[in-house]
Amino acid sequence: MPESFLYILTFLTALGCGINAGLFFVFSNTIMTALERLRPAEGGAAMREINRVILNPVFFSVFFGTAVGSLLLIVAASRFPAARGYLTAGGACYLVGCIVVTVTRNVPLNEALQRADPGSPDEAALWARYLKEWTAWNHVRTVACVLAAGLFTLALTVFSF
Question: Which stretch of DSSP H or E encloses residue 42?
Fold first, then answer.
């Protein structure tokens, strides 16, 4: 993988991490707090709709495109000793802290919320748990994406042309 291609891939992957960090930050800082202020049935309904709407080509392109970039950078890192640590750590932060956490923590909570009977006492209990757990894991995703963006940006500083 030529160094110029690696530089561009690192730049684009850093941008993807930044976009995801911003998305997750807005959820942690604003959206979940706003939904928590609603009645459980209203908050759950709003979140179910958000979960449906977010599954679109633009989101998937950034979310999974950044994962592909992270993986390619980890693989290529061995060829670039000066950037190896930054590329490997950045890729690991994104893949583990964002992708793995999303798949193993946030998505199962989203699916449980989707299956809940709207307006039932069970939904209210689930919603209380959802707010706490989903948001905590979202904080992890936010921090992981910020760290990955920073590490990939640092990697850009060691490339020479």
Answer: helix 40-53
